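Chapter summary example.
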Amino acid sequence: MALVPTGEIVAHGRVGAFNVITVEHAEAIAAGAEAAGRPVILQISENAVRFHGGHLAPIAAAARAVAEASTVDVALHLDHVVSPALLRQAPEHGFGSVMVDASRLPYARNVETTRAAAEFAHAHGLWVEAELGTVGGKDGEPPVDPHAPGARTDPTEAAAYVKETGVDALAVAVGSSHAMTTRDAALDHALIAALRAAVPVPLVLHGSSGVPDDELRRAVAGGIAKVNIGTALNIAFTGAVRDFLAGDATTVDPRKYLARARDAMAATVTHFCRVLASA
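The structure predicted for these 279 residues follows.
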């Protein structure tokens, strides 16, 4: 068990995909998945690459090394890619998949942009995810009202979109939002069922940190195959560091508090993996 193609993991469903920002994130995600005995996806977003000075290679190499050393199956995914230049780097750095994010564009331009990206990705052996609808809270934006006109993914439009773009998975807007720090999002399970019936590729739920456990179980049972989680790890990380430093004003060695942060993230990953597995 080690680094495997993303599509191979998603095909089994009920998989957690966790965001990597630092090496400690990658280590924690692998450790948490191993504790749960579940496969997992390490995701590096374009925002994370920007945080690392725009350089994909170092954090990708670290994540890949963690994946290759893992005792469970791990896939490497490049997430929320807007830049064509970043997309073109994915094959050389060991990614098995990429999420092309043209969701802010009008429908016709979304289709055109995503189709072109999918053609490149498929030519280089990459599994491709895209998004249709509006999952709010990206890049510091305020959450979008999930009931707002056009926010949720329309099943008929989604089926046409998948056919026109050739993507391998579709992220759908069904009531969640990125960057939520509370877990009170209510999903539209009737819409999930309608999308599952209309769309011939796996469905992906973004913004899952804000979704309660029972809602996640229902979503996975109803047809969501890949569940993206990021903010929950950062809550665990930051909380552990704050707690450590609040009780110790003299430590200057970052390994002391980063170890606590890594353990807290690993426990969070294990929890989510077990929730998804129990659906």
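To summarize the output: The chain has eleven helices and eight strands.
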